[in-house]
């Protein structure tokens, strides 16, 4: 039977994979992909709660906003990555370790 | 009355405060502040005096007491006592003080520290009034030290002169000797009776709280203060030196008032002196009287003569206290205050004139105070001469003067005492001998100063009479030297019976056991001794004057010839019996040697070996502690160890800070997991 | 097992597997393509959750917008000529452990939590209601979101511009 828990576990799986990507990927664009996975996991949860948890259409609205934010974030993040690339000649973020200093 | 007393006390103090702080900025350097304040006290004193005469009550007394501080079991009370004695003393102090203030405006004109001088003069007046008004030993002691302080400041007024500052120090230190005794005495009485108030102390003595021996010692200790302040032998040495101060100061402090404070104290405390103490007092007074008189005979400095004369007269007063005629001691104090202040102011006038004359001649070498440089000045300074003559006559004890009355009474008292106690015949000899010498040396002074040929004609030509601000006080004081002011409402010039003897009543001694003669017995004895003493004193006064006339006016007998014949006594007298030298040799020099030895010990042994040794040990110890322990162990091991440990761990922990965002994220997540785990548990 | 359920599990499987490919693939282009399938799978899950409008939006924005952006990013930052777009990973061990713990924690929580459940009815259409909600209840967030998008647009343009 497909109920709330199934969707939540799918969300958890997507979330964990997203986290893994964010942590382990060297490439900035790949990290961004991980972030997208995390956001999608959250969206799945929102919509699942809307369907089973009485959140109703508010859950839809929230996921809508998340999508909007994801679009904005992707645009900005890619701009940043481009900048890093222009400045450093690489987008491997483990080489962008100026935070150390 | 109490309000008057407080006003009299505080007015000069206010003048002092004003003068010392803003005196220089006031017009005329603010002398009018002091003069008017003191004149106001004179008005108040006169008012009180008038009230006293109207009441005419020998028993009149107002005693107002306040608790000063309260320490549980210890309660210290101070207050004001106003009786006839206080009123008379206040009048004397404020009158002489006012005259001296007025006189000083002329005498001190153009002085560098004019306003300061007046400030201190007012301070002195305040303190002296305080002594007179106090109803307790502590108050007297406080003001006693304050007069000592103002005396010190005024003697040292011209402190640029070494002799003046030395004299000030000497006066202060010599007085200290007496004051220590006085303080011990006060504390003895306080310990025994638990109070400083006269009435409590008297009551305590009367009820026998102190044994006779202790009472004798305590009384003599208190009297030591009087010895110092009233310049009695052996502490008389400061007074002649104190003449280094301005002459008006000498007149006010060192002739009329402050030096009389000792007499006043003895007078107040007379009832608690034991017979033994009184005998000692009588001998000290009598001996001082003759001793100072002998010295005065050969002095050439006009102020020195007067200074020794003052010491001698104070000796008279003390003698009067000692023989029980203590009201006459006070009587002599009052009369003496007038004519001796007059004499000093006259001498000031002479010195002023001499100084001016020398100044005109640009002579800064000659001593304007040396009588050998004077002579024939009576034509040039008529007022000064006449007033000084009157005062001299009064001091010599010639009839129709106040001095005759008081000196005669003291001599009568001495005679009566000797009749009761024939073994003390020396006192009579002292008294009459001093009277003879007084008449002699005073007229010697007059003749040397005002008669004869002037020593230097050009000086003589420059002598002028002093301004009226100086002569007016002279006239006032000379007028007060006549008998009339003291015998009213009677007019008998040969009896001291008058308002003073009625209002200033003798008191019986409160010493238990009836060891002393009662007041009545003393009065009785004096009454019998009065006529012979009077005749004898007149005779003696005139023989002294006659001798002076022979030797210094008519020059029938050469003074040098006698001096040559009596070379030993002459030398003794001229050198003041070598008292100063004796002190120098046997007291001061040994003290200095002792001080030097102690200083040697201090510097050479204590400092060098103990203090420095201690320093060396400390240094060695601190080196051990500092280098071995502090540096090697503490610093190197513990302090640096902490640093090294920190460095060690931070070097490891630093590796976490990779600067890689993802690395940080791992740690963040680890933290999240830990929080989750803790929550789950 | 109904056909609907079979389709659901297929969609789920595609979603999760392609998500794993996104994370584990060594080729960046493969990752991007796998991401496309993940996003499509998620859109399918939305359909199963009665969220038709969200599903459409997901495809439009994610697949049509964001994914294109990402591919642009890859293209712009790597030399096209390079044969293999280097795409290595780091700290896999510790990352894996942490992720595993997170997943276990989340799953245990999911199964233990007493979820609030209501029996919902399938809406006829959601677009009208969402539109009403956006214009009435969530007007302010909606407007703020539009401002945010504008700001992101300008910020991205500014950031990627060549500094001269």
Low-pLDDT segments, ≥5 res of chain A: none
Helix fraction of chain A, binned, reads over 70%
Summarize the helix and strand pattern of chain A as letters. Answer: HHH
CATH class of chain A: Mainly Alpha
Number of strands of chain A: 0
Architecture per CATH nomenclature, i.e. the level-2 architecture of chain A: Orthogonal Bundle
Number of domains of chain A: 1
The main β sheet of chain A shows up as: none
Largest interface, Cβ cutoff 8 Å:
A-C, 69 and 81 residues
Rg of chain A, nearest Å: 17 Å
Give a structural overview.
The complex is a heterotrimer of chains A (101), B (681) and C (164). By secondary structure, chain A is mostly helical. Chain A has helices spanning 4-24, 28-52, 57-88. Chain A has a single domain (4-88), classed as Helix Hairpins, CATH 1.10.287.3510. The radius of gyration of chain A is 17 Å and the shape is elongated. In chain B, a hairpin with a 2-residue loop joins β1 and β2. The termini of chain B are far apart. In chain B, 49% of the residues are buried. Chain C contains six helices and no strands. Chain C starts with a helix and ends with a helix. Classes of the chains: A mainly alpha (101), B mainly alpha (681), C mainly alpha (164). Chains in contact: A-B, A-C, B-C. The interface between A and C is large, with 69 and 81 residues.
Summarize the model shown.
The complex is a heterotrimer of chains A (101), B (681) and C (164). Chain A has 101 residues and is an all-alpha fold.
Features:
heterotrimer, A: 101 residues, Helix Hairpins, 0% strand, B: 681 residues, mainly alpha, 74% helix, elongated
In terms of topology, how is this protein built?
The complex is a heterotrimer of chains A (101), B (681) and C (164).
Chain A: H1 4-24, H2 28-52, H3 57-88
Helix pairs in contact in A: 1-2, 2-3
Chain B: H1 2-22, H2 31-55, E1 61-71, E2 74-83, H3 84-107, H4 114-133, H5 137-155, H6 162-193, H7 198-206, H8 212-229, H9 238-241, H10 247-256, H11 261-269, H12 275-298, H13 302-322, H14 326-360, H15 382-396, H16 402-420, H17 425-450, H18 457-461, H19 468-479, H20 484-487, H21 499-503, H22 519-553, H23 559-565, H24 567-574, H25 579-653, H26 661-680
Helix pairs in contact in B: 1-2, 1-4, 2-3, 2-4, 3-4, 3-10, 3-14, 3-19, 4-5, 5-6, 6-7, 6-8, 8-11, 8-12, 10-14, 11-13, 11-14, 12-13, 12-17, 12-24, 13-14, 13-16, 13-17, 14-15, 14-16, 14-19, 15-17, 15-19, 16-17, 16-22, 17-22, 23-24
Chain C: H1 3-24, H2 28-48, H3 52-77, H4 92-112, H5 127-135, H6 139-160
Helix pairs in contact in C: 1-2, 2-3
